[in-house]
Specification:
Layout lengths: L12 H16 L4 H13 L1 H18 L6 H4 L6 H16 L10 H7 L2 E2 L6 E4 L5 E4 L4 E6 L4 E7 L1 E6 L6 E5 L2 E15 L2 E15 L2 E5 L3 E6 L2 E2 L3 E2 L11 E8 H9 L5 E4 L7 E7 L3 H11 L2 E7 L2 E6 L4
Parallel strand pairs: 5-7, 15-18
Antiparallel strand pairs: 1-4, 2-3, 3-6, 4-5, 6-8, 7-8, 8-9, 9-10, 9-11, 11-12, 11-13, 14-16, 17-18
Protein name: Sensor
Pfam family, one: DUF4880
Organism: Metapseudomonas otitidis
């Protein structure tokens, strides 16, 4: 029997998946007496089945305690992407065991709890109640709170771009590292490695971070971290090409390019340090990451190796 570090028996993935399916079936409607008997027999057939059921009931109670949309809420949409993602997440939580709900602030749960979220490789464009437009990049999660006093966007993970219309209520954009205030303008915010990158393309903004208050003007970018803000830098206009489904590289390091490309696909893209400083330029469609990887050897002295579709590595081209 496999044990987790806490000494708690690990639930086999197949058994966890069965427990999730039983939970969904029992909550989808009123099960027949035959199905209830089948469920009870499944629980009694193996001690691991009963452990899995007890664990999913614990997870279920924990998720129902959240104030925002949860994994179980996603199950209300049959055959939707949300339902499939929720099933996967519930299975992982059952496997993870008693400490699973300590994952409340992990990326999968942040996405499920947020008002708006995108999957890996997905982009979404919204019109807000005030007429502002909002775009979410890949693997992002955002809460929206509009009331009589304010317009609030809370970026939990990922990246957003907002075109804010002028209004008496200020638009507030919150991240773990700070707060941005503006009345109107075009603003991009990206969360990465415990850092918030704030780029202003139009309008004027105020940035608050760890006791600092800074003015941000069009064409400027600030990086916020646990210590506050660094000096303003020039924005990279190409950094928001994702809203049009493109990745634009201008003499970009190959290592940085592959890291950026990896945001738009599941799995891992490794880069041999020997070629990480090679440079490339071009415009690349984000919906075709396999094709981009396949074409790299045509322009650079590299070869792309695939262990699986989800495990890619790029190496120097072997001498012929």
């Amino acid at each position: 029997m496999a044990l987790r570090k806490s000494g708690e028996p690990r639930i086999a993935p197949a058994v966890a998946a069965q427990a999730v399916q039983w939970l969904v079936e029992l909550q989808d409607g009123t099960p027949s007496r035959q199905r209830e008997e089948d469920w009870q027999r499944w629980r009694a057939a193996d001690p691991e089945h009963e452990r899995a059921w007890q664990r999913i009931e614990s997870v279920n109670r924990g998720l129902r305690g959240l104030n925002t949309p949860t994994a179980l809420a996603a199950l209300d949409a049959p055959a939707s992407r949300g339902r499939r993602e929720a099933l996967k997440l519930l299975t992982l939580l059952v496997i993870a065991g008693g400490g699973a709900l300590a994952m409340r602030d992990s990326e999968p749960l942040l996405a499920l709890r947020a008002d708006q979220s995108t999957a890996v490789g997905e982009r979404r464009h919204l019109t807000l109640d005030d007429g502002s437009t909002l775009s979410l990049n890949t693997d992002s999660a955002l809460d929206i709170r509009f009331d009589a006093r304010q317009r609030l966007l809370h970026l939990r993970q990922g990246e957003m771009l907002v075109n804010a219309v002028d209004e008496a209520r200020p638009l507030r954009v919150e991240t773990p590292q700070g707060l941005v205030l503006l009345n109107s303008g075009r603003l991009a915010v990206r969360l990465q490695d415990s850092r918030s990158q704030v780029s202003l393309f139009a309008g004027d903004a105020q940035v608050f971070s760890h006791g600092q208050r800074l003015a941000l003007h069009p064409g400027q970018r600030l990086d916020l971290d646990a210590r506050g803000s660094g000096a303003a830098q020039a924005v990279d206009e190409n950094s928001v090409a994702w809203i049009n489904g493109m990745l634009v590289a201008s003499s970009m390091r190959l290592g940085d390019f592959l890291a950026e490309l990896g945001r738009y696909r599941h799995g891992r893209i490794g880069c041999d340090p020997a070629i990480a400083d090679l440079r490339l330029s071009g415009t690349y469609p984000l919906d075709h990451t396999d094709r981009i990887l396949a074409l790299l050897p045509r322009t650079l002295p590299v070869e792309v190796r695939s262990v699986t579709r989800y495990w890619i590595s790029v190496h120097p081209r072997a001498a012929s």
